[in-house]
## 1
Amino acid sequence: MHCEVGDLAIVVNDHESPENNGALLRIYAKALPGQWPIPADWMCEPLSCFWFEGRSMFPGRGVLAYRDCELRPLRDGDGEDQTLIWAGFPKSLQAA
């Protein structure tokens, strides 16, 4: 996962609604499995205007659901690599 709860993020890979690429949002919770009719990792608050199928959603109104791969977090630094937290430590290879 690239994003974390509390992050500001920019939409970078919204292929279904490409007009939303470049829009800003704040991540406020993990999405629960089956909570949305689309695959989603995060529940987000819009900080920009979003467009979905001809309907608009304005900043501070409503909730958005996005996959992590569609977002890039906006942080001062790169932050700590958390890959080992979710993937675990690699197992050492033993000579055959």
Note: The longest helix spans residues 83-87.
## 2
Amino acid sequence: MSHVVTPAAESSSPAPMTVPATVAEIRTKRQASKKIEEPDGSRPLTAAEWKEIHKRDKARQRAWAQEYRQQAAALAG
């Protein structure tokens, strides 16, 4: 009898309902997932793809530099 477990009391409130996604939200998510698709090296990249890669890399570098500056400023004073 030392290992008998009593069941937890059931919750009196039902689980909250979630709002279903609209068609526009689903369409936007699908388009975003297509744009983020990374090249797998099986074909040459187009000029537009190179520009998009360059644009994302510059944004990544700017974000890193900004974070680095903020950390340096926090350490300095």
Note: Residues 2 and 8 are 17 Å apart (CA to CA).
